[in-house]
Amino acid sequence: MSIKKQYFKTKPEVKVTLSLPAEAAPQANEVFVAGDFNNWNENGTKMRRLKSGDFKADLKLEPGREYQFRYNIDGERWENDWEADKYVPSGIATEDNSVIVL
Residue 78 in contact with residue 45, Cβ under 8 Å? Predict the structure, then answer.
């Protein structure tokens, strides 16, 4: 898993690329990213499957903020990003949310 951030000098946004490796979801048919940036819509941001089997999604987010998110794998399992900037309690059971700090 990885998070890449690309800051722009001329735009008030950051391009964030989220990657979920094939080994994190080897049998997955589809993966979505749900978080603060899409009102936690479980099917809001679909990740595209690469030939390698990895999943990837690009987001445009406002800088100077923190965004909580998680991966929704086949609508059955939730996964955090192993390389998130930090983790915070989700308020649901003992689960944590991944956090991107921009």
Answer: no
- pTM higher than 0.90 for the full model? yes
Residues 6+ positions from 49 with CB-CB distance below 8 Å: 30, 31, 55
Number of domains composing the chain: 1
Please name which of 2, 7, 16, 13 lies closest in space to residue 45, comparing C-alpha atoms.
Answer: 16
CATH code of the domain containing 55: 2.60.40.10
pLDDT per residue as tens digits for the range 21-67: 999 988 899 999 999 999 999 998 999 999 999 999 999 999 999 99
CA 61/CA 17 separation, integer angstroms: 11
Residue in the block written with tokens 């048919």: 29
Q: CB-based contacts of 84: which residues, under 8 Å, 6+ apart?
A: 3, 98, 99, 100
Measured from the Cβ of residue 31, the count of other Cβ atoms closer than 10 Å reads 25
AA letter at 12: P
Range of the domain at 55: 2-101
